Amino acid sequence: MANADAAFGFVPVRHMSGNAPRTNQYTITSGLAENIFTGDLCVLTADGVVTPHTATEVNNIGVFAGVSYTASDGSYVYSEYWPSGTVATDIIAYVYDCPYTVFKVQSAGSPAQTNIGNCADVVAGAGSTTTGQSGFELNGTMAAGAASCKILSLVDSPENAFGANAVMEVLINEHLLKDSAGI
Fold first, then answer.
1. DSSP 115-133
2. Dihedral angle at the C-alpha atoms of 53, 58, 60, 63, nearest 10 degrees?
């Protein structure tokens, strides 16, 4: 059976230490004119705020897991995604930021056993404003050089196999909290 072509972003599956993955709190600039979806790879800007990863950035801080804020009408909001242009206060972005959190993510390419240990950048696909779910996936180009993610393994699941749209386990390789890319 062929793998489904349905990008879902980065989903935490475990931590290399054996502990459960957990989030830390960051903030987002009020009025940020970009959506950030649950499962999106994020970067930390020079201003200390979270924005979605684009292209091949290396200052990745982790994976977005939702946001809470006080809306302009004074109501408290928790959302699976940050809606573009939202004006708010008390903004708390929840981010899986440990560089040793293992994520599952779909590949836009056709990974093979020989790609284990290689690296791949990411493709920032469109997320869903209905579900708040990311559209991120691994780039189809996988090589030994440095890139956003380090490929650890194929996700062990009956409906998953090496080949087109395979779901892989990865670490964020180019991570702001690591001293250099690699594991």
1. GTT-EEEEE-----TTT-B
2. 60
Q: What is the DSSP string of 1-31?
A: -PPP------EEEEETTSSPP--EEE---TT
Residue 94: name the closest of 65, 131, 129, 59 by CA. Answer: 65
HSE-CB of 47 using CA atoms within 13 angstroms: 8
What does the pLDDT look like over 9-46, one tens digit per residue? 999 999 999 999 999 999 999 999 999 999 999 999 98
Question: How far is residue 126's CA from residue 118's CA, in Å, rounded to a whole number?
Answer: 25
Cα separation, 114 vs 118, in Å, equals 8
Task: Give me the sign of the Cα torsion angle 65, 84, 122, 50.
Answer: negative
**What pTM value is reported for the model?**
0.94
Q: Are 63 and 103 in contact (CB under 8 A)?
A: yes
Q: Backbone phi, then psi, for 47, in 5-degree steps?
A: -85, 0
